[in-house]
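re: ur question from earlier - yeah i can do the single chain one, its not a big deal. heres the input i used so u can compare w yours
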Amino acid sequence: MVICMKKVWVIGIILILFGLVFTPVISASNNNSESSSKVGRNYQPLLIVEFKGSSIVIKNIGDEPANNVVVHVWFDGLIFVNKDITGFIDTIGSGESYTFSWGFVFGIGPVTIHVEVTYDGMLEPATAQATGFMLGSLILGLS
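and the output i got, formated as C-alpha cells:
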C-alpha cells in the first residue's frame, strides 16, 4: 500500500509540473492578438560567442539589448605577452553583433583560448573555447 501511494504522489507531482510548464504556451495560443505576439519571444538578450581569425564575434540574438557587456579572454599555454585580456562594450542591440579583437598576443606552442562574456543581469556567462598553435603572434589551426 505504501508503494502504491508513492506512485500516486509521483504521478501527481509530474502532472502538476507538466501543467505548470505548458500552461503559458496553451494560454498564449488563443485568438487574443496581444498574447499571440509574445509567443516565441524571450524578452532578454541572448549572446552567442564565435571565433573569427584573431577576434571574437559576439552576437545578440535575443529580443532586448545587452548593456554593460564585459568580455574576458585568457590564454592557456606558453604566452609571453597579453595572457589575460578584459574589454568592455556599452551596448549590443537586439540582432546586432560586435567584433572584439584581443590585440597583440605573443607566445609559442599549443594554446587554448577561453572567452567569457557577461552583461548586466545575466545569470550565466556566454562562454567559448578554442585550441590552436601559437607561433609568435600567429595562431595556427584555431578550432
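The longest helix spans residues 2-27. not sure if urs matches, ping me
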